[in-house]
Amino acid sequence: MRGSPILDIDLEKIKYNSFQVVEKCHEQGIAVLGVTKGFSAMYQIASAMVEGGVDGLADARMENVMELRKKGFTLPITMLRLPRLSDVINVVKHTDASINSEIIVIEALAKAAKKFKKIHQVILMIDVGDLREGLLKENVLEVAKQISCFKEIKLAGLGTNMGCFGGILPSPDNLGLLVKIGLYVERELGIQLEIISGGGTSSLYLLENHQVPVGVNQLRIGEGILLGTDTTNNRKISWLHQDVFLLRAEVIEVNSKPTMPTGTIGRDAFGHIPEFVDIGVRKRAIVSMGKQDVNVEGINPIDEKLIILGASSDHLIVDITDSEQAIKVGDQIAFSLNYAGLLSVSDSKYVKKRFIGERSQKSR
User: Fold this and answer.
1) Do both 209 and 263 map to the same domain?
2) 231, 311: one domain
3) Structural domain contains residue 289
4) Mean pLDDT of successive 10-residue stretches along the chain, which has 364 residues
5) Do 42 and 124 have their domain in common?
6) Domain region containing 292
7) Where among 214, 236, 258 does a domain terminate?
8) Contact 245, 336 (CB under 8 A)
9) In a domain, 52, yes or no
10) By CB distance 3.0 to 4.6 Å, which of 15, 42, 158, 340 could disulfide with 48?
11) How far apart are CA 57 and CA 112, in angstroms?
12) Taking the alpha carbons of 208, 211, 215, 218 in that order, is the dihedral positive or negative?
């Protein structure tokens, strides 16, 4: 729609970032799953990941997986959220593998796989410290034994998650523990695990420093490819692009106003009591974008002299006093995004998506 906020997406930079991650991982014998949940699995971006060489795709939302299949993607797809018991049919039908921790769900997956005459691969998740999903180490062997009883389920490997709940950083110690548990399971059950999945973007720091333990052979990369950042380690990844996405929105008012509201302060539209500091009269721009369009805490003005003051559902208020640009009504202000911002804006029907270097659907 004309006048709507626009998210510019540089597909060539997605392809470049994917290639760089894949190349560095493959050099150390590590496969890469391109994680598509951060951009709602838009097929143009997924295609760029595929062109960049990812070994498979992964998502936490079944709706996204089904959309990828409808668009013709035939690469292996892994379900990245523990399957819902109520959704095992779709998991088996549309994905090649899923992460799991509950034996009752794995049993249901086996029954669904029998109906489809398929073998479904399971990656058993191990909690090595972050305290999100996964078995504690002392319970792994027993669950692995139970999985071996299901003919329609293949225990493809073990995996772990880091940084998403507890903020725990991957290390040679905790990833080494995952490898040791894998070796223990192999020895006790007389099997060979194909996958030891050692986390996501936060593990790239170890990769760069050749500290990923031997045995880890898969990483699940979303943020690194999309944004060139590593939030858990609080860094920009120097060898990746950070400007793949650019959010633009139109200025609808420019005015100079005091920094303290007049009257009795109650709660704002979202139930919060706002706080203000009186620094005199400042020049402000109102932008046609608000909390219904994007997670405002997940964006930053490209012009570093601009300051976001706050937002309502439909209005973003920006202090433009110190900008060297003569910002006026009708101009656009550009913003970068972090992962939280990208998650929200990708889902927003009010933000137009514009692809730079848009490619056809031929590469799957």
Assistant:
1) no
2) no
3) yes
4) 86 98 98 98 98 98 98 98 98 98 98 98 96 95 97 98 88 97 98 97 97 98 98 95 98 93 78 79 97 96 97 96 97 97 96 82 39
5) yes
6) 245-355
7) 236
8) yes
9) yes
10) 15
11) 22
12) negative
* DSSP one-letter code for 139: G
Q: Is residue 177 part of a domain?
A: yes
Task: Count CA atoms within 13 Å of residue 182 on its CB side.
Answer: 28
Give me the amino acid identity at 66: M
Pick the catalytic residue: 15, 24, 37, 362?
A: 37
Of the candidates 104, 56, 103, 47, the one whose C-alpha atom is nearest the C-alpha of residue 80 is 56
Which residue, of 184, 213, 236, is where some domain finishes? 236
Round to whole Å and give the CA distance between 363 and 350: 29
Q: Which two tokens stand for residue 68?
A: 């990828």
Cα separation, 228 vs 246, whole angstroms = 13
Q: Which two tokens stand for residue 61?
A: 């939302």
Q: Which of 259, 269, 247 is nearest to 350 (CA)?
A: 247
Q: Is the dihedral of CA 247, 249, 255, 259 positive or negative?
A: negative
- Domain count for the chain: 2
User: Known catalytic residue: 37?
Assistant: yes
Q: What is the CATH number of the domain that holds 37?
A: 3.20.20.10
CA separation for the pair 55, 49 (Å, rounded)? 10
